[in-house]
Every structure is written in C-alpha cells, then in structure tokens.
Amino acid sequence: MSDNDTILKPSDVVNAEHITHHTLWRTPITPYQCERVHNRLCKIFNKKICQLYNSLAYKETWYENIRQFIAFHKNIQVTVNTIGLSDQEIVEVNEHGFTLFVGDDCANVDEDEFDGLNDLSSDEWETLDDIIMYYYLKDINGE
Question: Model-level pTM?
C-alpha cells in the first residue's frame, strides 16, 4: 500500500439509531460486539478483499468488475458455515460488509447505479454476501 491509500477505519461511535436497530432482536448484539464485527471487517477489507478486488478490476464498469470478482471465487468454491454466529452477527456482517464493498475504497459503486439497468441480480448480490462471510469466517478461524 502506498502512503496515499485510504485505510478503512471502524466507526468511533456506535450511534443511537444503530443501537435501536439491534434492540429489535430478541437477543440484541451489544455495541461492543458490533464494534468487534466492524473492526474485523475493516481488517479483512484492508488486508484482503480490497487488494484482491482491485487486482481483478480491469474492466470498464463496476458491474463487470464485481462479476469478475464473483467468478474468481467460484473457482475456489466458497463454502459458508455460519452455525457459530448469531443471527444478529450475520446481519451485521452482511450489512457492514456490503457498505465496505461498495464504498470508495473497494468497488466504488455510485448510489445512483443501484436498481439501474446494469445492477447485479439478487443472486449475484447474495453471492457477494457469501464471499464476504467466507473471509470473515476464515479470519475468525485464524486461516
């Protein structure tokens, strides 16, 4: 990484809206647990996902590049077993992972591009969730 690269940082504060969202669950995720998920995801994106995505992103459009990223992972057979995670942790990984993936430091998808003619299918977005979860689980298991 060069000195000009942006490093993803976890949020310094978990805001009240975020906490309210988690209180809707029967067993809400605590702000500390949420912060740990965010920190782990930021580490994974900084060390693996952003670098890999950018090494594969040579097409002209974001949707072609994301499809290239997905195709790369089909070749390594991504398996996801979330039995050890709570439902809330899974939701948090999916939501925050998605935000990091489409953000400026990775795929850089403009918000206006969603639901357009070139948007990915729901199956493709779900595969992307699985890929992010795959790396999250690998990190938890020390792989």
Answer: 0.78
Residue 79 lies in a domain: yes
Q: How confident is the model at residue 17 (pLDDT cuts 50, 70, 90)?
A: low
**Residue 1 pLDDT level (bands cut at 50, 70, 90):** very low
3-state per-residue secondary structure call for the chain: CCCCCCCCCCCCCCCHHHHHHHHCCCCCCCHHHHHHHHHHHHHHHHHHHHHHHHHHCCCCCHHHHHHHHHHHHHCCCCCCCCCCCCHHHHHHHHHHHHHHHHCCCCCCCCHHHCCCCCCCCHHHHHHHHHHHHHHHHHHHCCC
Q: Please report whether residue 107 resides in a domain.
A: yes
User: Is residue 19 one of the residues assigned to a domain?
Assistant: no
User: What's the structural domain count of the chain?
Assistant: 1
Residue 107 has pLDDT above 80, yes or no: yes
Question: 68 is in which domain, residue-wise?
Answer: 32-140
Q: Does residue 8 fall inside a structural domain?
A: no
